[in-house]
Design goal:
With about 325 residues, this protein is mainly β. It has two domains: about 5-20 and about 200-305, Sandwich (Immunoglobulin-like), CATH 2.60.40.10; about 50-200, Immunoglobulin-like, CATH 2.60.40.2550. It is about 5% helix and about 45% strand. It is built from one helix and 21 strands. It has one helix at about 30-45, and strands spanning about 5-10, 60-65, 70-75, 80, 90-100, 105-110, 115-125, 135-145, 150-155, 165-175, 185-200, 205-210, 215-220, 220, 225-230, 235-245, 250-260, 260-265, 270-275, 275-285, 295-305. Strand 3 and strand 4 (about 80) form a beta hairpin. The longest helix has 15 residues, at about 30-45. Bound molecules: calcium ion (3 copies). One calcium ion (CA) binds near residues 12, 124, 126 and 130.
């Protein structure tokens, strides 16, 4: 079998409860993909730096003068009360630190002067100064009542790294706060804290992040595209195989030295198929994988023939 090609890129992740925190990466000109690619290119061109010694986190902003922010925040030993609205809707509380253990659940409490705020939370588990999608441990939790503490349970995922990391919360008024931890929101607030993660991290865990193919595609040359990730803290090398049994298609890509928190988009061998419905399975095969549930994924898609050109109003022939 010829060597299939590996495209793209490195996004920083950190960890994942597979499926729950999976990044959705789509291809085909998608703006989000382009932005991420731009980010990747930008970082590749920057000189090497000591990630731990430079504070280079993005600073988001929001309008909270009317009270659309976090009045109280309570989580894993952090208790920050009556903070009101920080200037430009961003509060740096990194002098406050909580502690949480991998695999344990903690009650997060939020109080605001408004209901309808949608709250997300990230922990920069790999300390790369970016909050990636798979580092998001709370997604658009709604504060349903005002001036009372509204609570939810948050589990520290198995792929979290131990040590002291930055934690960010963001609230957006009746809008999702989850898409961008660097956003400038209309009404809401952002706050940063520190948290120490303890316990036993997952050392070896590769898995499928997303199948990046449309459910309906044109028949002909098809290139299956899948994003995989390393959710364990050890650098990992492993094959990824995609198979479709009825047609006997099989393609394997060897992933080499994928670091903690990195994901890769893989393009498998071109597959020439006619119209029909197909289902393939794609699996990562990492020796000693501690979380087998996310190793494989199946995907069904339909192939259609080229749509016929419509001939409009060809008089007397009956062709339309
Ligand atoms: Ca506040
Ligand atoms: Ca990160
Ligand atoms: Ca796995």
């Amino acid at each position: 079998m010829r060597q299939a090609t590996i495209t793209l890129l490195i996004f920083i992740l950190a960890t994942s409860v597979a499926g729950k925190l999976m990044a959705q990466v789509s291809v085909s000109g998608n703006t989000e993909s382009q932005e991420r690619l731009n980010t990747f290119v930008k970082h590749k061109m920057e000189p090497p730096r000591n990630l731990k010694s430079i504070d280079d986190y993005c600073i988001p902003a929001a309008f909270c003068e009317n009270g659309d922010g976090f009045e109280d925040f309570i989580f894993a030993g952090i208790e920050n009360l009556a903070t009101g609205c920080s200037p430009d809707g961003y509060g740096d509380f990194t002098n406050m630190q909580g502690t949480a253990e991998i695999g344990m659940s903690y009650t997060a409490g939020f109080k605001s002067a408004f209901n309808g705020l949608m709250v997300s939370m990230w922990i920069d588990f790999n300390d790369d100064e970016e909050f990636s999608e798979i580092e998001r441990i709370l997604t658009n939790f709604e504060i349903t009542s005002y001036w009372v503490i509204v609570e939810t349970e948050i589990e520290i995922p198995g792929g979290a790294n131990t040590g002291i990391h930055r934690l960010r919360i963001g609230a957006n008024y009746y809008q999702p706060s989850s898409p961008d931890p660097c956003a400038v929101s209309n009404y809401g607030e952002w706050e940063d804290y520190m948290i120490e993660i303890t316990g036993n991290p997952t050392y070896y865990n590769a898995g499928i992040v997303s199948i990046d193919m449309a459910p309906v595609i044109l028949a002909g040359d098809v290139v299956p595209i899948v994003t995989i990730g390393n959710f364990g803290i050890e650098t990992a090398s492993f094959p990824v195989t995609l198979t479709e049994p009825t047609l006997g298609y099989s393609s394997t890509i060897e992933v080499v030295d994928l670091g903690y928190g990195q994901i890769l988009q893989l393009e498998f061998d071109t597959w020439n198929i006619s119209a029909g419905v197909y289902t393939f399975e794609v699996c990562t095969y990492l020796t000693g994988d501690e979380v087998p549930e996310d190793d494989c994924a199946t995907h069904s898609f339909a192939c259609t023939e080229q749509p016929r050109q419509k001939v409009v109003a060809e008089i007397y022939t009956g062709t339309w």
